[in-house]
Design brief:
single chain; about 280 residues; alpha+beta; 4-stranded antiparallel beta sheet; 4 helices; 18 strands; Type-II_Cytokine-TF_Rcpt; cytokine receptor activity
């Protein structure tokens, strides 16, 4: 007896032969938000499955990255051991609901990834405060949040790196190319070597000296500048406004000169006419 054939619309599709391997498998991670990416986009004939594992650990899968038609996989919540070295394999498999004659599917492995050492650190925010006597400028730095949670609380980078985390401040006078650098182990950074009344501009970035050189510095913050107590006229007003004011002043001076000249000419003419009309005296 032979097994009855399934109706066409219920039979799983079958694909023979091999599938293209994934290429450029790369980890992209910022503040422990870790995404695995690769190329190319799959056709309708195949899909991708991601398997990942720590050194000497078991292989795991993210349910959202099995027989998937996309080329990204979010593994942020799965890389729980931040000090472990992880490798991911991207397998090229039949699309969801289809079968294949292959026993082993082609795959491409990623480089090793260590969350603690390799995630990039995003730019911090900070507030700027100048003391009333203008002798001290204080920066209050906010630790960037991470994609990690513990006991229902979202962790920031200070929670993860603890005393390994420092902040590097780059600063200089506004409109000047000269820069100074100051490193602080705390989030409250006081600077007192500044010229009073001058405007200074500041940038802050995370600094983790225990990491490799290319991973020590985080993304630089947006620039913030203090106020200048003695700003130049070009800082208070735009160049256009200053130019218009100068033009009006010159025009006014020109009008005054013109009116003065006209009045002098008329006065001289009047005096001349008066002299010509006077009768001659008897001798």
């Amino acid at each position: 007896l032979t097994a009855p054939l399934l109706p066409y619309f219920t039979r799983p599709l079958s694909f023979a032969g091999s599938y293209p391997r994934a290429q450029n498998v790369t980890w992209k991670s910022t503040n422990f938000k870790t995404i695995l990416t690769w190329e190319p986009e799959p056709s309708a004939d195949y899909s991708y499955t991601v398997e990942f594992y720590a050194v000497n650990g078991d292989r795991q899968r993210n349910p959202h990255c099995i027989r998937s038609p996309v080329t990204v996989c979010d593994l942020s919540s799965y890389l729980t051991d931040l000090n472990a070295y992880y490798t991911a394999d991207v397998l090229s498999e039949p699309p969801l609901g289809a079968t294949s004659d292959l026993i082993e599917f082609p795959h491409t492995s990623s480089p090793r990834f260590n969350p603690y050492k390799d995630t990039d650190i995003g730019r911090p925010d900070f507030k700027l405060e100048v003391s009333e006597d203008k002798k001290k400028t204080t920066l209050y730095v906010t630790d960037p949040l991470t994609a990690l949670f513990k006991d229902g609380r979202q962790l920031n980078i200070r929670d993860v790196f603890s005393d390994q985390l420092q902040y590097k401040v780059t600063y200089g006078k506004n409109k000047s190319s000269g820069k100074k650098v100051y490193t602080s182990k705390t989030n409250v950074i006081e600077l007192s070597d500044l010229d009073r009344g001058q405007s200074y501009c500041f940038n802050v970035q995370a600094y983790i000296p225990s990491r490799s050189m290319d991973k020590q510095l985080g993304e630089m913050s947006q620039t913030q500048c203090s106020n200048d107590d003695n700003p130049s006229i070009f800082e208070v007003y735009s160049v256009g406004v200053v130019a218009a004011a100068i033009f009006l002043v010159l025009l006014l001076i020109g009008l005054v000169i013109a009116v003065t000249v006209v009045c002098c000419k008329r006065r001289k003419k009047a005096l001349k006419s008066g002299k010509e009309g006077m009768p001659l005296r008897d001798v």
